[in-house]
User: Fold NAD(P)-binding protein from Hyaloscypha hepaticicola.
Amino acid sequence: MTEVALITGCSRGGIGDALAQEFYHKGVRVFATARDLSKVQHLKAMGLDTLQLDVTSDDSIQNAVRYVERETGGELNYLVNNAGMGYLTPLLDADLTLAKKLFDTNFWSVLAMVKAFSPLIIAAKGKIINIGAVTGVMTQAYWGINCSCKAALHMIGDTLRLELAPFGVQVVTVITGTVNTPFFENQAKYLDVPENSRYRSLQSQITYSGSAEEWRPWTEPFEFAAGVVANALKKNSKVWYWRGANTFLTWFAVTFLPYAFLDFKWLQMSGLNTLRN
Assistant:
């Protein structure tokens, strides 16, 4: 029987796009989802199933559950929670409405998806794969909202792994490093530092052109996806799977280096060591 995967956030050029294609090439039936179906037409042309899905909408999620249940007979082998957005700002300047929207998309939607699709996943004794990030294990100045979302996502994955084990469901948390996607370009519109910000003098440190070139080195999406899918298809997957540029350095730093040293380096790299009262 053909296995089935549903992947959120599959817009062209992103991680979800690459994951969808990799699962498909491995013989898995893929439901590639996005809020805007025009961004996944290339996947439909390849033969993948495409489905409109807004992970922050209960109605949209329930519609997706009913559709997948009807199409598959009630089983889902892989639920890949990839949809997300970013927000770069000093925490003192954070727009809390936007910050809450970030948590809705990056964190609460994952729990909503798991709850909704759990009958299908349990029926298949399947796997939940949450796309986390290195920012969830080591903070970075000005990325505090993102870091908090990803740290929470990692914890929910660890908890689900325990609570779903009796039902034969595995939960994988992918610790994602730097991957070359449109994510970086999409952040440029959120980078204005307010005139009255205590960090105004550091605007050049906080903002960037929106070009991914500034984030090298990186891993290409299809290289990233190949590893993630290979781990997913194993009988017993690694429960924390590190993949992408800078993951080894992050693991080494948080495992062996003292916080005082890490804080010192981040203060230097972010320009915060130049601020004075």
